[in-house]
Amino acid sequence: MLARSAHGLYWIGRYLKRVEHTSRLMELQMNALVDCTWDQIHFGWLRLFRHLKTSPHNEELVNWEEHGDSWGLTDSFALADELSFVMQNESSILSCFTMGRENARQMRHCISSEMWICLNKAYFEIRDLSIEDIWTRDPMQFYANRVQDVNTFMGVCAATLYRDERWEFLQIGRLIEHAQLMLALMSFQNKSSDSDEFEDLEHYDWWSLLHCFQADEAYQHYFGAKIQPEHVMNMLVADQLLPNSIDFSLNQIADRLSALGEAPSNRHGAMANRFIGRLVALIRFEWPDAENKTRMLTLAESLALKLHDHIATAWFNYEVDDSVRF
User: Fold this and answer.
1) Per the domain annotation, does 113 fall within a domain?
2) DSSP H or E segment with residue 56
3) pTM summary value
4) Which residue has the higher pLDDT, 200 or 143?
5) What pLDDT score was predicted for residue 60?
6) Model pLDDT for residues 89-132, shown as the tens digit of each residue
7) Does residue 324 lie in a domain region?
8) How far is CA 21 from CA 8, 96, 196, 223, in A?
9) Is 325 domain-assigned?
10) Long-range contacts from 262-266, C-beta under 8 angstroms, 24+ separation
11) Which residues form the domain of 175?
């Protein structure tokens, strides 16, 4: 398989996973505007921007984190625009959707016609929209529809794409993006839970994550209705059966890398397998007894970034002299 094709499929998975992830949190945030306190709403925006490692491009929002009592719906409108339709923001929904579609356009020979039609239709539905268009209607439904668009695309992919390297690279991209975003999110969440700045949230921060990543029913089944931050953290990080947990994603990545077999760059391919093995062992065996969870999450996040680098060097950007046919 051509390295260019593998690279394009990998980034289709990454871009669309970021669309889904951001849309889930944005839907949650729009719901918070209806019936949550200003402290909870402000925390939600901080969590979004800080774990995505982005900042508003609007000059009027440079100091939005420090607005205090003057902060309100006007800022929410502008912040929602930033993460939804501002193309200069690489984490915005429209930007990621556009990049995902552009990669798919260049990879038309690698994906099914049904996948292209599905993605193209979803893109044209949002291409010409603005924050004003959705704000006066039903913003929560807009973000819910974006999650559904990505899930539909992945369902079409599962139903129509041949299970060769094309499938594996698309899945690896999706899974690595999910693992990196979840590690960054849980790292911020764990730090904030120990901070006096967010002591009045009444566990909204933890409950909202359970709801966002479809873990609330499983949590209630095993732990009851009372929110206990330690149990929520362990479920979202280390639960082997929860599809949106970090542990589940890491094990799926390990399986996908194993299915690919030998990499064009043997050395970096072996390093990629070692890094994913270390990540799996870190979450599976060291996490339960770790006293400093923040340090553990920071280490795992760093390893996940290096894992991406080794995958890119092993399969996409390898030196010709170091390559083998795959």
Assistant:
1) yes
2) none
3) 0.93
4) 143
5) 58
6) 999 999 999 999 999 999 999 999 999 999 999 999 999 999 99
7) no
8) 20, 11, 27, 25
9) no
10) 262/324, 262/326, 263/314, 263/315, 263/318, 263/326, 264/3, 264/314, 264/315, 264/318, 264/322, 264/323, 264/324, 264/325, 264/326, 265/313, 265/314, 265/315, 265/318, 265/319, 265/322, 265/323, 266/322, 266/324
11) 3-316
